[in-house]
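Before a computer can learn anything about folding, someone has to put a protein's shape into writing. The outcome of that step, for a single protein, is printed below:
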Amino acid sequence: MATSAFALKEEGNKAFKAGDFKTAEDLYSKAYVNFLLQYNQNSKVFCSIQRDSLNPALFTNRAFSRIKLQSWDACIDDSIKAIELQPGSMKGYYYLAQAQIALHHPNEALNSALTAYDICIRTHDSSATNISNLILQAKKEKWEVKERDRLRRRSDLLKELEDSLSKAADAQTREIDQKMKYLELDPAEAQEEKAEIQVSLRRKTDELRSTFAIADPTNMTRRLLLQEVPDYLIDNISFAIMHDPVVTRTGNSYDRSTLLEHLKRSNTDPLTREPLTRDDLRPNLALKQACAEFLEENGWAVDW
């Protein structure tokens, strides 16, 4: 049975590599069922299967297949099961974050991606760049949610103020009608004053909308002025905004993930060409905080 479960898992891997993700998903499911059946008659050993490395791998493998199939809820279920069986499952958190992003849950996705990143760095896994990009994507989507809410509230406020202007104009018009009724104004004078009220209403409404437009970061002119990322937040390798900057012995700062990729090719500082190893890197906590604060208010910078 154990061989059968392992064989099914390997067949699933082959199907996945061939791009047949549905077949891979089915094979991983069959492998897990066979794996459970093997121990079903021995409760003592059955309890131990949760510590077997095959078990979490089946869930993460199937989760990856489900990402390819865009079966997001099922992917979340598998990722959570993998994490429950192996709390340090980097793939479990990584796949969980991807599914959460797809379902538009950026806050949860950011937490999952950050956990995956921490495990990745701690275990020297090679996925740091991909996970770092996912973290930035989650931060961008988190900002977009906040931005949409801000625009909705802005729209509600603008409508409320426009309604107030219209009500004030209507009240003035009714007052003129009353004066005309009691012969305090002749029809010509009343018509002239009503016209002035409408002109004033249009002018105030235009001024109000203009003021809101100028104050709106999505206003094109203002956005062009704002869309500048400070140079000190930019990675000198990828030229993208950093998320986890580290500083070298020479005082240069880089994003950790891109620098680790560089060190795979050359054990030198990218700028000074002096010898550099992974052990020489130190977190630049002040710069990391500055990057986080900037992205909190300027999520568009991820695509800068």
User: Anything to note?
Assistant: The CA atoms of residues 107 and 142 lie 6 Å apart. Residues 41-53 have pLDDT under 50 and may be disordered.
